[in-house]
Structures are given as structure tokens and as C-alpha cells.
Amino acid sequence: MLRGERMVLREFRREDVEARFAEQGNDWALHAVADDTAWRPRTLEQALARYDRAGSSGEPDPAHVWFTICRAGDPELAWVGDSGLWGLNEHQGTAHIGIALSRSARGEGLSTEVLRLLGFYAFRIRHLHRLSLETLGSNVPMQRAALAAGFVHEGTDRESAYVLGACVDELRFGLLASEWREHVPAAT
């Protein structure tokens, strides 16, 4: 478990699938901005079955590490979002970061703390060299959070994402381990 001042990142559990589905289950508009696959309606049972299949091998996927985002003051550590590393390449020392907050947790500046906790995990625990973050040009809160966490805007892929019938820009941010060490609060 990774603890910040206001947030906790813990392991992803089966009950988190239910909490996520209750809020986001068939939200096609959210899917359009948070996923690069076409939306399809699905049931809670299908979401749980997918979770069960993924865990049935007993071996975690080495290219993905997902956490549940919780509020630090919540004794039950209930789900308020997901975060993690994807495209993790141990040989190259690289990974991408993903964050999805529940509606109730948005607008509070929590993403910056989650990015810092993921930086701690990536650079101190996994000894990675570089993190990448991609977000839509319209996602100004994530852009601000990335910059506040020390990420550098590295470029814009013009009209590279298809969202609700339109091609939109995708912004790329990067953070090196050396930059993270300079930017991280002293207590971490």
C-alpha cells in the first residue's frame, strides 16, 4: 500500500470492479475519452468474469500494475478511482501512467498526489528510468496535474485520438527518475 497525505493506493480487488461498474459501467461518453477501444454495453457479470479470468492464472501481467485509489481518511479504503502503470518494460526501465478518478473525486487536485505516489512506486520501488503520460488536449486538469508533479510536456500528436466522432489532439508528457528526485517532496 502506498500512502500519501490525502490518498492511498492499494491493490485492486474484486469489489472494486463492482464499485467502478456502479459509477462508470455503461458510461459511453466516459469510455470515449478514457479508452482507445470502441464502447460496447456490458453487464456487471461480464465485468466480474473478465476480472476473474485475468486473475485465474495466478500470475500477474508483468506489463501492467494497477492500484485502487482511496481517500486516506476512509477506514474502509473504498474505491474512488484506478491508477497504475501500463506498457511497463523492465529492460528499458519505462512505463506509461494511467489515472481514472470517480466523479466524486474530481476537481480536488488529487491527481497530482496520485502521480507523485506512482512516481515513488516507479522510481524507488521498481527502479524505472522514465514515465510517460498521455492525455487529451481537452483534459486540462490532467495536464495541470502532470506539470505540478514534475512531468514535462514533450509534444502534441495532432488529431491522433478519436473521441465521439472527432479527431482530437493528444498531449505527451514525460518524467525521468532524475527529474522526479528533484521534484519530489523531501518526506517521500
UniProtKB/TrEMBL annotation:
Keywords, in A-Z order: Transferase
Keyword Cell cycle attributed: no
Domain (N-acetyltransferase) ranges: 7-174
UniProt GO MF annotations: protein N-terminal-serine acetyltransferase activity; protein-N-terminal-alanine acetyltransferase activity
Organism ancestry: Bacteria, Bacillati, Actinomycetota, Actinomycetes, Motilibacterales
Cross-referenced Pfam families: Acetyltransf_3
Statement: the UniProt record of this protein carries the keyword Transferase: yes
A GO term from the CC aspect: cytoplasm
Annotated protein name in UniProt: RimJ/RimL family protein N-acetyltransferase
